Amino acid sequence: MSLVSEVLPGLFLVDIDHFGEPGLGGAYIFVVDNEVALIDSGTSRAKDRIRQALADLGLSPERVRWIFLTHVHLDHAGGAGVLLPELPNATVVVHPRGAKHLVDPSKLVASTQSATGPRFRFYGEAKPIPESRVHAAQDGETFALGGLRIQALDAPGHAPHHLCFFVPEQGLLFTGDAAGLYLKGQLLPTTVPPNFDLEAWLATLTKLEALAPNRLAFTHFGLGGPELLSEYRKLLLAWVEKVRPYKDMPEEEAVAAVLKRIEAEGWPMGPGVSGDWSMSVRGVLQYLRRKEAVG
Description:
Blueprint: E1 4-8, E2 11-15, E3 26-32, E4 35-39, H1 47-56, E5 64-68, H2 74-77, H3 80-83, E6 91-94, H4 96-103, H5 106-116, E7 134-136, E8 142-145, E9 148-154, E10 163-167, E11 172-176, E12 181-183, E13 186-188, H6 198-210, E14 215-218, E15 222-224, H7 227-243, H8 251-264, H9 271-293
């Protein structure tokens, strides 16, 4: 796949070469009239790819008005801090619960390092963003991009600081991780620690379905149809039940047992995906144990 491709008129997907592999992670460049927005920024390692994509499209840095971050996990937001000094007119839009982690990313970086282990090297750094350039978006708040409106929607489940962005005029929904991963035409769960919440996520999917979108734009990776929302609901419920029998085992043993099971079932287990499976197992285990602790 090329560095940047036009997936809809005026909407470009930049392959950020996540984990050194094509087709795993991206950032969107959205051009409306004379204004530009980024939806997610990739890791800080993606900076040069996004700058090159803007240049290849003939878009000056001054035209970028918004960086819409679906959430502050570093594969979605880590690049914002290193890009922003070169985008003088851009404001970063993020969930209120994520804003403080952009201004001071130290806890976010530590949490990412703990969750990702040896894969942390792929996530790069996270540069602090001046508070004056961060906008904490309220649920339902709208932002103008040229002649279009982009609506921010509170979408917890994957993380409590997750937003989706909806373009009503186009029926276009930027899902971040709220509808899972969509890799090479296959949905995969992304129930990562420490804050996976099944009930919140199911409510988010109901909320997104009520929008009746006609296109979903996944950060991981590319466009899909609206039926994927209901398909992900089924996958999410089945995935939690797949992990549940292992909840009383020591965590490392449980992770190994579930990975062995899903590999035997034929799920994709390439080098760029296997680490996501491990994190997704840990997230469900922690969720189930929290539920059990509160009765």
